[in-house]
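Subject: design request, 330 residues
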């Protein structure tokens, strides 16, 4: 094991459904308004996957683009980690379905579920796999189709979420570049705050569960909000401390895109001006595990990530879970 080996992000890609649902569209079906949604969340519109499109379809699209941008072929991939809470089916894993779709025949594949924190969890775990020298080309994908788990009659949740996928390719890079530090956390006592109660082994799908919509997202929004505004800043500072980097040196802060007010609170905690914070929640809503890799991709595509830049990615989600990684862009 080499101590100077780091995992660098060497390619990025996205898989985004074309269909856009605006706040005005939602006004037509539920008792809400563009004004309420935008002022409370910062969301203007979200993407919704059409019937027939599953999580692995978006994930595979993102993966192929990331590989192309990395200049690598599917045969070079030796590990695929898909962070998702909305797999194509209970099993096998969505990662295996992606492996087959893209023809990554040499790759091991598994899913990781930390809901909206899933991408940060997967990134940090995969970075360890690369740093040990055990894996040399890892696809880390965040993909979710939450529109299929939303109760479209519940205005408190259905306005928040959207669908999508984002992928990065991790490969060995030399110091001082790559993923420098990560901090992950969980508090399972917070599970009742945000969950999908039915459809698992505790409460299998039944006519009663379906009638009561217990197979859809249940959320105590205000409590999740309070947790999020504190944890996003805290865990980012912990990861920066672990990396030995002061927050003034952060060139770009890429938080989970759930709510603009949560993002602003986290930026304030780090003393970062909003010019150094990437925001696209207005166009995608909360895409769960996909939100950070989609934002990373867009930041990269806009030329905002330059060699040597310090980037912090940070997420929170159901579980409760949270995590942050500090990356020096290669
Ligand atoms: O990845 C993690 C996912 N979860 C989150 O990020 C959620 C975190 N929480 C939040 O972002 C916020 O709590 C919300 C945006 C969900 C809600 O904002 P809030 O300021 O906490 O509003 P609230 O839930 O306290 O509701 C205020 C009012 C209520 O009406 P009354 O009881 O005051 O008459 C709601 O019924 O707003 C009403 N309301 C709506 N009105 C119009 C709730 N949803 C809507 C809606 N349109 N879509």
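Subject: RE: design request

Done. Sequence follows.
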């Amino acid at each position: 094991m080499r101590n100077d080996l780091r995992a660098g992000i060497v390619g990025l890609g996205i898989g985004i459904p074309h269909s856009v649902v605006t706040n005005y569209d939602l006004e037509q079906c539920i008792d809400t308004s563009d004004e309420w949604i935008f002022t409370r969340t910062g969301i203007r519109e979200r993407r919704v996957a059409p019937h027939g499109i599953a999580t692995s379809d978006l994930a595979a699209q993102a993966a192929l683009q990331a590989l192309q941008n990395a200049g690598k072929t599917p045969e070079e991939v030796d590990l695929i980690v898909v962070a998702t809470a909305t797999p194509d089916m209970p099993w096998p894993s969505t990662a295996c379905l992606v492996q087959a779709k893209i023809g990554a025949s040499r790759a091991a594949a598994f899913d990781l579920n930390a809901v909206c924190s899933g991408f940060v969890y997967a990134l940090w775990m995969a970075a360890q796999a690369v740093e040990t020298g055990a894996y040399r080309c890892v696809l880390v994908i965040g993909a979710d189709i939450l529109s299929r788990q939303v109760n479209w009659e519940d205005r408190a949740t259905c306005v928040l979420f959207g669908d999508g996928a984002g992928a990065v390719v991790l490969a060995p890079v030399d110091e001082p570049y790559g993923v420098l530090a990560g901090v992950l956390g969980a508090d399972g006592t917070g599970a009742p705050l945000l969950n999908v109660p039915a459809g698992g082994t505790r409460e299998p799908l039944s006519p009663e569960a379906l009638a009561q919509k217990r197979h859809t997202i249940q959320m105590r929004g205000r409590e999740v909000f309070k947790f999020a505004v504190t944890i996003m800043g805290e865990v980012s500072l912990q990861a920066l401390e672990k990396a030995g980097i002061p927050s003034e040196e952060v060139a770009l802060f890429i938080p989970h895109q759930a709510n603009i007010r949560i993002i602003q609170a986290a930026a304030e905690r780090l003393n970062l001006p909003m010019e150094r914070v990437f925001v696209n929640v207005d166009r995608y809503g909360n895409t769960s595990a996909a939100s950070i890799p989609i934002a990373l991709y867009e930041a990269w595509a806009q030329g905002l990530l330059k060699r040597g830049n310090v980037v912090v990615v940070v997420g929170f989600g159901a579980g409760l879970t949270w995590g942050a990684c500090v990356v020096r862009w290669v």
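Residues 32, 36-37, 40-41, 116, 155-156, 159, 219, 221-222, 224-225, 228, 258-259, 286, 317 surround oxa(dethia)-CoA (CB under 6 Å).
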